[in-house]
Design a protein that fits this description.
mainly alpha
Amino acid sequence: METQTSEIRENAIEELPSPGGIGMAVAVDWGLCVQIALMPVFALFGQSKMMKMTGSNALIGTILFFVVALLAACLLAWFGEMIRSGRNWARIIQIVASSLLSLAGIYGLINLYHSITMGNFWPLVTEIILAIISPLIVWRMTRSSTARWFKLVTPAQARTRHDGKWVWFIILFSIIGGILQTIAATR
């Protein structure tokens, strides 16, 4: 009986249309992971005013900044892996978070114009992620075919589907996007 149920589930997954938005969502999550991990490094080497602390607590503050950033980066890396593994609860959180990021991107368009007129084009990186990619993630992750896929797929099947070259391209895009966003955030 269990074998038949397993076979029916596997056949149903093979017949489902491809899910959408998973690659973009994982790339944004892992890119944010890269950004958060790099922020203390950029701050330490003078690229930012975030760590301009004085006094005897400067070393403790710096260490705390690194620890908190690494914990947050690890949390985002894990969350991206949960999306890649087909966890439906992670899809729902991703939709909510991407919706909020989309709203922040729309609001940021006001500041984008001001920054560009001042000669600072780095906010374009942030706005592309927030005002274009985040809404695309929401749209693609809310499609019924994607919702069905997340509900039926097992983590092993999802990781198998999103493995090999796929994961290496996502890692590459995440690193490039994370570095560009870190530079944009420090300007």
